[in-house]
Batch of 2 targets.
Target 1
Amino acid sequence: MSDTETVSRSAVTAPDAGPDTARPPRKLNPKIKIALGQIAVVVVWLGSWQWMSGRVVDPFFTSSPSAIGQQLLEWFRTGSIWPHLLITLQEFGAGLAIGSVAGVLVGFTLGRLPTTAAVLNPFVTVVYSMPKLALAPLFVLWFGIGFGSKIVLVGLISFFLVFYNTFTGARDVDPLFIDSLRIMGANRLTIYRRVVMPSAAVWVMTGLRIAVPQAVIGAVVGELISSNQGVGYIIANAAAFFNTTGVLAGVALVACVSVVLSQLIITLERWATRWKQG
Amino acid sequence: MPSENSGTARNAVVSAQAVSMTYHGRRGPVNALSRVDFNLWEGEFVALLGPSGCGKSTLLNMVSGLIMPTSGSLTYRGTPIDGPNTSIGYMTQRDSILPWRTVSENIELPLQIRRVPARERREKVATYIQMVGLRGFENTYPAGLSGGMRKRVGLAQALVYEPETLLLDEPFGALDAILRLRMQAELLSLTEKLGAAVLFVTHDMDEAITLADRVVVMSARPARIVDVIEVDLPRPRDLEQLQFTAEYQEVRRRVWHNLGREIHAGEKEMAKP
């Protein structure tokens, strides 16, 4: 999680040099400096872990980076991980798609109905604050141990994140833009299409960006609780046999997948809000 | 009000009678505008001149139909203004161009809304981009423009559909002196060509006199009309030379006299505990 954050933030702040600000060259490009620092952190972290494993602590408890790497290689060499990874990705994709489409629709609708929104506000806040992962066992009870319960969990998590942001965005529109279009002779539909939707798109994208890693976690936790397939199942299975290496390799895999998906959504977000860069 | 009805066949575009505006601020009611009587005639260029924050923008907002007067009657071509006035082009004081549309997309927007055919839209947009000196920035988003450039996009947007009345709220405030003079000249020739009536808010006395047929001097809050000064300077005007003529100096003296009194009144108001 925190890795994703650092990566995205440094990537966002990097292109700050405007088109007309030609600066004199510096000794070391700050981008390279940051990258070197990040590599140093990884080397120190993994190196000390590797060194301590077997010397200071029993690898039964902590495994080691090399063992985890080997496990990952093994999974991909034999291809045994693919069906599980695919299942997790499908749960993620289907849940995120359903949840975010519903979130956008409900968010825009309630954004237009201020009274209804005010009535629902406290309830939305309660449900929003609820730890939805804690409901996973109930979803298994209601929707079975297969695909369904995971999609519901992922969908619910994505829905609230996207809905909340869309709703905020639909109400955050600068009234000056709306007034200006009314004078130009625009009707409500045109104002909606030309002002409210593009203005709220920024918020929708923020909601999606937050939802992606949460949706991955949702899919994996859903599998951890009860399933017979998916990366979460692999992790749970390894844990049942006290296979530390298997658990950590699964977790590392999930983290990598999450980072890749987050980068994709960040790219999409930057494309959709490219007007911010001028 | 001197010689308000001297023109025999002229029609009022905007007509205000005893228009007042009170709104409820955090510290109780605020009197923004007090019993304003005023006509804007067809094809006339009127400058509203007064201290900052005196309610000039309030008057424009009322003419545009975005807010209603608390009392009095305000009509547009004889009809009470009770909703967004689509006969006008309004350039607000704050940027109202859409940040997610490029320069040309923003200027094109009012034409799109009015369902102007695509080809005509492209021609008009090109003409007005040229006029406000933004050639080469057609595909730039507002975030990539300076404050003055964004103002010019706003101006082009208000002009592009060639409305019969223009409301311009300090349109040239953010421009440098040379560009400002050029834009003023462009605005004059365009409004003369279109025969558009202009209500032009400014706190720059020289700008008011060089551009307008009449200068309406307003007082500090609550805004009242203090004086209406006819600017009998011939048209078309040579904006560069105008300021050095004796007639210009005479008008300026009169405006200054009134405005100076208002500034002092405003200061006394502020000095009150």
Target 2
Amino acid sequence: MSAAVAARPLEVRGLRARRGAHEVLRGVDLAVDAGERVVVLGANGSGKTTLLRAIAGLDAVEAGEIRADGVGLVLQQGALFPHLSVFENVALAVRLKGRPHDSAARAALAAVGIDRLDAMPHELSGGQQQRVAIARALALEPRVLLLDEPTSALDPDATREVERTLAGLSERGIAVVIVTHDLPFAVRTATRTLRLRDGLLAAE
Amino acid sequence: MRGALRLLAPLAAWCAACLLAVPSTHAAPQQPSPPLRWGADPSGGAPFAFFDPDDPSRVIGFGVDIMEEVARRLGRTLELHRADWLALYDSLEAGRCDVLMNGFEVTEERAAVARFSVPYFAFGQQIVVRAGEAGAVRTLGDLAGRRVAVLNGSASVDVLREAGFDDARILQYDDSLAPYTEVALGRADAALAESIIAAYYAGADARLAIVGEPFAPGTYAAVTRAADAELGADIDRTLRAMQADGALGEILQRWGLWDDAQRALGTERGAPQETLAKARGEPSGMSSAAAAIAPAIAKGAGITVLLTIVAMPLATVAGLFLAIARLSPRAWLRRAAVAYITVVRGTPLLVQVFLAYFSLPPLGQWIYAVSPQFLQAALDPLGGAAFLTLPPLFVGAMCLAANYAAYEAEVHRAGLEAVPAVQWDAARALGLSRAQTLRHVVVPQGVRIALPAIVNDLNSLIKDSCLVSVIGVTDLLGVCLGIGKARFTVPEMLVIAAAVYLALSVAGDLLGARLERRLRARGFGTLEAHARGAHA
């Protein structure tokens, strides 16, 4: 590989993971290019969340290789920190890493179209909360962004807001992996759709 | 928080002022020798040492007068060390005071472990019954099978046992007044105490009658540590001189205690003296005294507030660290936290206070003795071998803090565990370390969840703080009981104490509610739902 060709932001090979006695992932391969929006479909319990948590490094895996270059994870329903304002939610991790957090947080929030910096999470709509959660991951400047069921609690208008935000991320060259069982959303959003079935990932 | 601090700062300043204003009993500041620290229990201690009914900030009594004269003749100032009567001997052994003079009867058992001075007073046992039964009782034999009230740990207990009374009929009370109250109320049939106590407490009470002649003679003497032979000799010499030159006889006359039994001890009567008005217990009204007792109660309440505002924040912070340790991935840390919480919650606070107060001084002496020289040099500015002989108020506050820390640990654990797991995930996904996650994400939420329970514990700490009065801290209850016993108004003073505790507890609740509102104002109305990200 020549130096001129940048490595893919995310490459997963032969990933195996179990939840208890059940082997949920049985050799998953996944490669995502910059700017791609890969949607992973699958029934409940098919291992979609396990896959994202494994890539994000939250859970240990049994076997396989994960090469990820700056991963951000947006958990189901955002999981914002309820005691911190919108700005503080986004700035916290940047600040703790000792980077200039003010500009990073403002830029990330601008990228998702949120301007209520001093609002508390519970004062926002569901779609706004989801976008703040995306901004929180974005502020750390990931090359890969993983989203777990980003529309599960959203009404159609809020879902549209999130779709527009995700399209914007692709334009910035961020590789996006979304797991969902919201088929219409998947169809509108994905540049590539995969399905997780029997612990293996296959093209839809 | 800053609002709460603004509220607390003047309060703390006032408490500190109260502390500094606690009167040192009697002073002659030009003396260079170290003060003579005299151990006594002025709570219900008439006529030996008790709170002046007209000015409860003063301690008076014939014991005070004798000790003042002893100290004066030794060229030393007198410093009163207060402690519960039953704890006085331990205070002496722990080096918190140098001499006890508080109606200690000379007995063989006591003489085996401590050094008695020459006796300074001769007494007999005196029976007191209800006025209506005065004709029927003359001797202990007339009381066979009946219940007799006595002062806990006094010689009267031994006298009754020797006369064949079984323990179920010997009712023991912690202060001198209670036996007479019990007889007057009918819960005991008679009271037996040293004649001097009977005369003071029963002499002026029309419901009671002093019957028969004093019997089973005994003597009171001052007590010093066996090892402190020099002071013991000084006190013996001084008391003998006071017996011979009439100074002791004059003090006894002023307190209405002079009789021929004293002459038999070798005490000269001295110049004739008039009996002090305060030498006989006279029930006094509440209303006439409000102005006299209000400052003392305010000071007592100040001590209670001070104990609370020192102990509760310490307990809350220490409890948080214990809770974090309990949830730690490191097994040894978890076990240490669980062990601390189990032991502290499993033993009575009263026992902890006593143990800390009396075990720390000898522990400190031992540590000092086995320490290498450089460590001793480091401890010398802190009091040398006495570096763990800490003031009662300090020990009391630390015990309350250490005890409540164990309870707050459980409250915090419940709070931390109530923070949804997804918050941990979110923090980890952002690359926060465990410590960063705790500090910035989990603890702030857990504390808010735990806050109502913490405020509830603050409320109980205000009242539990009264337990430290056993080591001589003059807190609200201690002050009120002392005044009540001195003025024969214990029930009234308990009602006042209850009212002030109620006011403090309501103030604590208001402060807590304010704190909760402040934190909730930052978006915590439905904390758990939002932490999970639900917004439907």
